[in-house]
Every structure is written in structure tokens, then in C-alpha cells.
Amino acid sequence: MSRLNVAKLIASVGIRLPTFTNATRPAGETGLLIYNSEEGYVEVFDGTEWANASTGSFTVEATGGTVYDSPAGYRYHVWTGPGPFNILNAKAGSTIDILVVAGGGGAGNYYYNGGSGGGGVVHVTGYPVQALGSGTTVSVGAGGAYPYNNGAASSFGSILTANGGGSGGGYPYSYGGLPGGSGGGGSLYVSTAGSGNQPGVPQSVGSGTLQVNGGNGGGGGPGWPGNPSGGGGGGGAGGAGVGYSGPKVGDGGIGVTIPGFSAADHPLLAEGGRYGGGGGAGTYSPNDPSRRGYGGVNPGNSPSNPQGLRYGAGNGGSSGPSGNGYGSQAGLARTGGGAGGPDYPHAVAGGSGVVAVRYLI
Questions:
Q1: Which end of the chain is least crowded, N or C, by CB within 10 Å?
Q2: What is the pTM of this model?
Q3: What mean pLDDT is predicted for residues 79-105?
Q4: Which residues contact 359 (CB under 8 A, 6 or more apart)?
């Protein structure tokens, strides 16, 4: 190999680098520059491998969302509203992990209500960056508003979609639980619970691995005529809502825990990486908290846990005719938690969703 040793090289037009492909690159010498026509960028040999000269040792260079580098060596992009994800550069074979959470269902109206379903949750690992192209549009679903509104869907381009949680049933008499990513619970008046349709949503994961595509149905209500107490719990991404079993109204289903996507990794992510819990059913009388439904507890989660550890789901309310007592809880923001079933006169919204991407740096 010919060598030219100079203190400074100034080119008035440009410097033409030798062109290679992945298969024809020469034996590495630290600091050697080439143009890789297969990858479409300049590479430098860093002493161990050929790396993109503009990104250095970074596997991916991208923009979009709120960016944060975790102590564990991952870069996170988190969206709480719509926006782009743009790949600027990436090493061959680079992959990303993706989380998509939809908005939780909003509460029904008045009282005797079922809990609302949690937003659907989708988690994919090892998605190939080269399959994305340069730009991907991200949408983030809002929590369902009161009364009787499902949460909105979230998506990562045309690749992944999470459906919003279904509203819980209640007054007026014509409303049972609505279907959604996870379904809303049935009511005193209409026992039918909403189905959880998230598992049936197709996801385009390519050579990546679909770890979670979670949603479950709500619990049934007593139906009219029935004991004037309340309804069934909303479904969660990890467990079904519990049906009414008077005098206790139904608890909401648990959500799912997503490793590597918690508040410890990025401050906009959920406590403990818990998402998509179903809301507990509400009751009108008596003013007894033990009879209301608890959000995000079925199966096996303690009702005494704080809301973040109940997958962002709201507890149902328990109030008497005067409106005093224990108010229902809204779903937590950025968790997709379902709203607790309302009690007179409290009514609340579902928790908003979130979308996140991570990759090694």
C-alpha cells in the first residue's frame, strides 16, 4: 500500500476515497478511511471493526421525541404526543426495541358503572433499523374523556398499533362495557362487558420479536334488575376484569410489566414499567371503600399498592346520595391505565398512552 505522509493536506475540490463493499473491505488499520458503496457512507476502522465515520461507535443516530441516555447504556426516544422518528445513520444489523401504549378508556356516566379498560400494549424487541427507512410517524393516544369515550389508539408508523381501552358501562340504561384494546366492565343496567381486541391486531415486526400484544375483556355486571351496587372491572393488558359478585363490585385486570421501559430508564416512562391496567368498578351506596372495585389488581396484585404499581389504573368510586365518600380515580398519564368506574358525582378520564424506542449506544 502506498503512503503519503504530510503535516497538513488541503484540497480545493475534494478527496476521493477508495470504494469498497462489505465483502471487499481491506484488512483493518486503525484510522483507515474508505467509502462503503453498499452502506452508502464513509467508514473508519476503529481498531476493532469498520464503523460509520459520522456516528463513530454509535449503532444508531436518530432524532425525535424526548431523548435521554440511561446509565445502562441505552438511548431512549419517548413521545407523549405526535411526532417523527428519523434515522440519520445506523450500522448494518442495528436493531431497536419499541413500546406502544394506547390511551385508557374514560369513565361512563353517573353511577352503577363498570371500570374502564386499559389501553392496548405492544412491545417489540430486535426490530431491524434498516427496515424503517429514514422517517417514521409516531402517534400517541389520549385517554378517553368522560363520559363513555374509549381511549385513542397509538401507533409507530404503519408497523405497530395499540387500540384504546373501552369505556365502562353504566347509566343511562343502554350502555354495557365497550370493546377496546382491553374492554370495559358491564354495569348494573347492562351486564355485557366489552371484549379486549388488542391480541387480534396484526403487527409488522419483520425479523424482530413480538413480546407483548396485550389486551383482555372486562368483567360482567349484574344486569337489571339486580342488586343496586355497581358493575364489573375493566380489562387490563395482562388480565381480565372481574365480574360483579355483590355486594363487592368488580376489580380491574392487571396490566403488563415491560423490562427496560420504566421511569428508572427515562423519566417520562411508567413506574416499574407497568402499563395498561383496567379500572375498578364504581358503586353508589353505601359509602364503603371495601365494596368499590380496585384498578389493576386481578390476578394477584395488592389493592393497597400505589396507583403506579397498579399499572396506572384507577379505583372505582364509592359515594352516597350526597356525593361524599370515596371518589373515582382517573388513569395515570403515560400508562394507558383505565379510569375507575364513576360514583355520583365524580367522573374521570383514562390515562394517556406513550410510545418509546430504545437502542444501545
A1: N
A2: 0.85
A3: 95
A4: 59, 60, 62, 74, 75, 94, 95, 96, 97, 129
